[in-house]
Specification:
18% strand; five-stranded parallel sheet; alpha/beta; four-stranded parallel sheet
């Protein structure tokens, strides 16, 4: 596909589907359910091909994607708490109006379109050892897995899901697609309660391993890509890279690995939150609560300690009314920016040595009071271009 217009792999399958419609179906139009990128793909390419498009989006869909769908000329209906509820509404509307329903992750024409990513991967990296693919409804990994395994059965296929929507992992455990509750996630594009039946039947025999990734590693992946690759990737598109950062794939060390960054449509406000959470997961944004003297010089002593350590203060909040210590004490909650985990640990050690009451949080994944655990196990992985190939293939 020589030109990419909506910055997501979804338009490959969408355009392939639209091109295969009969003349009568083109005139009546199509309808689809999507949290964003599939809707964007149909909206753009439907307009280009003169096919009316209606998209039904859940209330959790990013505002930017809803707005862009309208800009591209689609009729947008926002209803349903999740994809499943939106799909029920869209199916009823499709029957009522005689529209062709476009399943964005389960129709064979969609899977075939997504599979072209696999062909391009092999053109660019013919000697790849493994491919880590984000998984939502399963259409993307199904198409790519067929392409890669057909041409090279030795390639390891790894799927990556958010902990907030592990539908494919649960399906593989159950031996069939099953309902999996989803919740708000940085990888909103992967939040599918029931994976596609065609996608499951196609992909399951070809997948070598599934990885479930915690949210903080998705945030960290977005941060790493912005800082090191100068690429803005949405949460769903960065989940494959997050799987590497999570430290769950030690068998890939020294291997040539392709990780498609499958989407770049992210709200600017969400991007800001992701970067902050990424900094926290990276140990570079910390929060602590310390009880200090409320007499003159108490706060000065704390800030001087922070200054001596080279720590930058981002925010400070005082708490006096609910404090159970002596009346001349104040609890201070401070958000600071540090250089890395080692710097954060140095700060924690200094505070615990100087003050009796300290609660310290080094990581977004460890928001607990009096955190004394060593977060050194949390992956603080940098991209090693000698070991891992990152391929931006929308």
């Amino acid at each position: 596909m020589p030109y990419i217009f909506i910055f997501s792999f979804k338009e490959r399958g969408a355009r392939n589907f639209l091109l295969k419609l009969t003349k009568e179906q083109r005139e009546k139009g199509v309808i689809a359910t999507s949290a964003g990128n599939h809707a964007l793909a149909l909206s753009y390419h439907g307009t280009q091909l003169g096919i009316p498009v209606t998209v039904v989006m859940p209330v959790t869909a990013p505002l930017m994607k809803v707005t862009l769908c309208k800009t591209h000329g689609a009729t947008v209906i926002v209803t349903g708490e999740n994809i499943a509820e939106s799909k029920d509404y869209a199916m009823r509307l499709a029957r009522k109006r005689g529209l062709a329903y476009v399943n964005g992750y389960d129709h064979p024409w969609i899977l075939a379109g997504q599979g072209t990513c696999g062909l391009e991967m092999l053109e660019q990296v013919p000697d790849m050892d493994a491919c880590i693919i984000p998984v939502g409804g399963g259409g993307y990994i199904a198409g790519i897995a067929v392409a890669l395994k057909t041409l090279n059965p030795n390639i390891m296929i790894i799927g990556a899901e958010s902990e907030r929507s592990p539908g494919f992992t649960n399906a593989m455990k159950a031996g069939r697609p099953i309902w999996t509750p989803t919740s708000s996630s940085l990888a909103d594009g992967l939040a599918v309660p029931v994976v596609g039946y065609n996608s499951y039947a196609t992909a399951a025999p070809l997948i070598d391993k599934m990885i479930v990734v915690r949210e903080e590693f998705i945030a960290l992946a977005i941060l790493r890509l912005v800082e090191m690759e100068k690429v803005v990737v949405e949460g769903a598109g960065a989940t494959g890279f997050a799987a590497v950062l999570s430290g769950q794939l030690p068998e890939l060390v020294g291997k040539k690995v392709v990780i498609p960054l499958s989407g770049g449509n992210i709200d600017s406000t969400v991007l800001g939150r992701c970067l902050e959470r990424g900094l926290a997961a990276d140990g570079r944004l910390c929060r602590f609560r310390v009880v200090i003297s409320d007499r003159p010089g108490g706060m000065a002593g704390l800030t001087q300690t922070l200054a001596d350590l080279g720590v930058s203060v981002k925010d400070i909040f005082h708490e006096r009314a609910w404090l159970k210590y002596d009346v001349f004490s104040v609890a201070v909650t401070v958000v600071v920016e540090t250089k890395d985990f080692a710097h954060a640990k140095e700060l924690e050690a200094t505070l615990r040595h100087k003050y009796r009451k300290v609660e310290f949080n080094r990581s977004a994944g460890d928001i607990t009071a009096n955190a004394n655990t060593d977060n050194s196990n949390t992956a603080n992985t940098n991209m090693d271009n000698n070991n891992t190939g990152l391929s931006l293939l929308p």
